[in-house]
Design a protein that fits this description.
By secondary structure, this protein is an alpha+beta fold. The protein has 11 helices and 11 strands. The strands form 3 sheets. Strands 6, 7, 8, 9 and 10 form a 5-stranded antiparallel beta sheet that branches. α3 packs across α6, α6 packs across α8 and α8 crosses α11.
């Protein structure tokens, strides 16, 4: 396509693209469109394809001019982006001077670009994370959780009010700050266990069966869900039933029912201890990576297009069900969630970009062995076979995100191999719940 274009810097990620399409090209495109519309136009008194040109222009000229202008703008912009090697995100802001098919088409487009920061001082750094110890206490707690997972529930029939220690059947919807309530999800656990929120569960004590109650708490900075840390969260709970819990005896017979490929209490303790140590190592690794990325984000500030932040917010909202289970991210009104999640989304994006930029600077590439190693890891985590996992992650709908995860994992491993990690004494538990890394 014939056009002229130039680019003017507004800031590090914002450019103004000026494009001019010659009037000859505009006239040719308009003439072609008039002929095409004329061949298919249906007007009373004329056979299809025999409508006079002046009638076509009179009845459909505005629409034709709009379509031609829109088509020329899109084609010229694509060409300008390619010519100037612009990696545009979001929708351009178009400023069209006039729409006249007898003149050249001139317009400007304000666009935001994918950030390409130069990341410095990322090798041979030092970070500190809390040391996680695993001992008899942690093993006993895990063994107790195994017993509780096999507990028999007996309905409470002599009262309707919930007491601490009851197993409650609740449906719980969640509202973050002033956002919308999520769809109610089932919660069946001991009231006071703290699984939902220790503060919230305390306020559910005394509810009667079939009652609904709203409980509002402010989450701590150590909340297992990073998107909820430090947020005002309202739990809307409806109590459906009360139960008491009968725990099985911890003996060899019980161990054999677990399906964990051990048959004695002693063997189970060894297996649990081994798993707790692996969990502690994984958490230490994850926290070390997060500490390093936090350091690099702080030292390498750069702008991020608002469109990228909004897309990340939509992904967060859809992933955690705040807009309802199975919500399409594209249909989510981001304005309702931007106050709660904008900072977290921005940090996730910056971490991901920093990782990618370091990978490019270090020339890190994904090899077949890297893909196979990741498939093996995912299979172990999900308790699936390698063959089934490979088929899932290499599906055409998932392969790009899988390969991106493999690459970023390899880059992080490279970074951490050059990072000194100091383990400090702290109150961290040995086997916290697993979290997904933000990058």
């Amino acid at each position: 396509m014939d056009f002229q274009s130039s680019v003017q810097d507004i800031d590090e990620i914002t450019k103004q693209v000026t494009v001019t399409v010659p009037k000859e090209r505009v006239a040719k495109e308009y003439e072609t469109s008039v002929q095409q519309v004329g061949r298919s136009a249906k007007v009373n008194g004329f056979r299809q394809g025999k409508v006079p040109r002046h009638m076509v222009e009179k009845l459909m000229g505005d629409r034709i001019r709009f379509d031609v202008t829109n088509r020329l703008i899109n084609e010229a912009l694509r060409g300008a982006f390619e010519q100037h090697k612009l990696e545009v995100v979001g929708q351009p802001e178009i400023d069209l001077k006039e729409m006249d098919i007898a003149k050249e088409l001139e317009f400007t487009a304000k666009v935001e670009l994918y950030p390409q920061p130069t990341v410095s001082n990322y090798l041979n750094r030092n970070v500190s994370v809390a040391k996680r110890s695993v001992g008899d206490k942690e093993v006993e707690e895990s063994m107790e959780r195994l017993r509780e997972s096999k507990a028999e529930l007996k309905p409470v029939e002599d009262r309707k009010e919930a007491k601490k220690g009851d197993v409650v059947a609740l449906s719980v919807a969640v509202q973050v700050e002033d956002g919308e309530f999520s769809r109610g999800e089932p919660f069946v656990d001991e009231l006071g266990s703290g699984r939902l929120s220790a503060e919230a569960e305390e306020q559910f004590i005394g509810m009667s069966v079939n009652d609904t109650k709203d409980v509002t708490v402010t989450t701590g900075e150590d909340h297992q869900n990073p998107e909820l840390r430090g947020k005002k969260v309202t739990y809307r709970g409806t109590l459906h039933g009360l139960f008491t819990k009968n725990l099985p005896t911890l003996d060899d017979a019980f161990v054999k029912t677990l399906g964990l490929e051990v048959e004695t209490v002693a063997a189970l303790k060894e297996k649990v201890l081994d798993q707790l140590k692996k969990n502690a190592e994984e958490e230490t690794k994850s926290e070390s990576q997060s500490a390093l990325l936090d350091l690099l984000v702080k030292e390498n500030e750069f702008k991020v297009p608002a469109a990228m932040v909004d897309d990340e917010i939509r992904g967060i909202v859809a992933r955690y069900g705040f807009a309802g289970k199975g919500a399409n991210p594209d249909s989510i009104d981001v304005n309702a969630f931007r106050p709660q999640f904008a900072d977290f989304a921005l940090n996730r994006i910056r971490c991901a970009i920093i990782i990618d930029r370091i990978g490019a600077a270090e020339g890190i590439k994904v090899e077949d062995a890297d893909r196979e190693q990741m498939i093996q890891r995912i299979a172990e985590q999900n308790g699936s076979t390698v063959e089934a996992t490979r088929k899932t992650v290499l599906d055409k709908s998932r392969i790009m995100s899988f390969l991106l995860e493999v690459r970023r994992t390899k880059i992080l491993d490279h970074l951490m191999s050059k990072t000194t990690v100091e383990l400090t004494d702290g109150p961290k538990d040995a086997a916290p719940k697993k979290q997904k890394k933000g990058a």
